[in-house]
Amino acid sequence: CAFGGFPKDAVDPVQATRQQTGLTAIECFQAAASLIRRDTRLSKLDNQDRPEPLSELQMAIGSTAGRRVIDLIREGLRKEISIPIEKENAPDPMSHFSDYRQLGRFLSNSIRIRFAEGRNSEGMCLFRNGIELGHSIQIDTVMSGLVGMAVNSILIRALEVHADMLNAADCDQLIKDCNTWLHWEDPAILC
Known about the structure:
By secondary structure, the chain is mainly α. The chain has helices at 13-18, 25-38, 40-45, 54-61, 64-78, 97-116, 120-136, 142-160, 168-182, 187-190. It starts with 12 loop residues before the first helix and ends with a helix.
């Protein structure tokens, strides 16, 4: 999925530095969630009780921090997901499950913005990223499987609201994506 509006021959500055982070996939996801918590505008978006107005969503998600969150998620998705080796004094792995749900909600808001702006193909791309995220985090426990399914549910609801805005090409791509997802290996079997 192309994102960010950079011409194909131009060098995206975030893309250029992305290769140098040296983060694992899980660390990329955790860094993205941490960025949401630290950024005032992005953290306001995570208020589940009161959805933010569209104009505030646009400003927050279009900000440098918002674009960086998407870049970190995509960077993590390009890497192999592995079960973190427990180290002494390492944080509880269960503590990161809220991070994954937070990323799902962020992507859901991003999809909402893209469709509101008429940028459906970018919204569909973010939807695919979110489904990949939900699948990729189902790696080692029943709880991670449930959280991955919760993330997917958040994203499916976000797309469902905009289903009437999909054109024939979007629908065809969605069918292809669904067929691909149906053939993904079951994460529970891979453990």
